[in-house]
Amino acid sequence: MFEAHSISNGFAEGADAENLSQIFADCFQASEQTVLIGGADEPFYQPGEKEELHRLYFREDFARSALHESAHWCIAGKARRALADFGYWYAADGRNAQQQYAFEQVEVKPQALEWLFCKAAGLAFQVSVDNLDGESTDDFPFKLAVWQQVQCYLQSGLPVRAAQFREALAQYFGGPLQLIAEDYPLAELCR
């Protein structure tokens, strides 16, 4: 289905927003009527009306933002995909400890998938607490939760759309096709 391009050190060169958007379109535009679009000031999901395509926007041309928003979309069920921004609550940077905890609960699964997507595309992954101006909290419990969710996905399998997208990324970029627990050590998140 996908052929790896310009392989160097095991991965294709140029894991950028443009080719990530194209891979997403190849996977989901026809079947799910959904496209991934860069250039946004803030990420946002806009369900299409009637015959319109659903649009999943990511920040500027940031590949990691593209993969993160793709992860949210891959998790969202049919009802959530009918709602603007999947109906999620979001408090901007500057959250207090209680708001940060609520944010992290919603982010565990998407960030776990994002790590899997990054590895498939040959991109570095780092857990994001996305709260630089907020109350300082210990990020280890969140990192542990993301790692545990990856281990759960490795044992029980990925959601269908997530598995399809991860495999397409791995095929295109020459990333690992097999999911192996040793490739996702907790220590990698705690650097």
Helix/strand-derived class? mainly alpha
The main β sheet shows up as:
3 strands, mixed
- Low-pLDDT runs of 5+ residues are 1-14
Shape: globular
Tally of discrete structural domains: 1
Hey, roughly how much beta strand do the residues contain?
Answer: 5-15%
Number of helices: 6
Order of helices and strands: EEHEEEHHHHH
Radius of gyration: 16 Å
Mean pLDDT: 88
Overall helicity: 40-55%
Strands of the biggest beta sheet: in what spatial order? Answer: 3-5-4
Distance N to C terminus: 36 Å
Question: Care to count the β-strands?
Answer: 5
General description of the model:
The protein is built from 6 helices and 5 strands, in the order E-E-H-E-E-E-H-H-H-H-H. Residues 1-14 have low confidence and may be disordered. It has one domain. The protein has helices at 17-32, 63-75, 97-121, 140-156, 160-173, 186-189, and strands spanning 7-8, 11-12, 34-40, 44-46, 54-59. 47% of the residues lie in helices and 10% in strands. Strand 4 (44-46) and strand 5 (54-59) form a beta hairpin. Helix 1 packs parallel to helix 2 and helix 2 (63-75) crosses helix 3 (97-121). It is mostly helical and 191 residues long. The strands form 2 sheets. A 3-stranded mixed β-sheet has the order 3-5-4. A two-stranded antiparallel ribbon has the order 1-2.
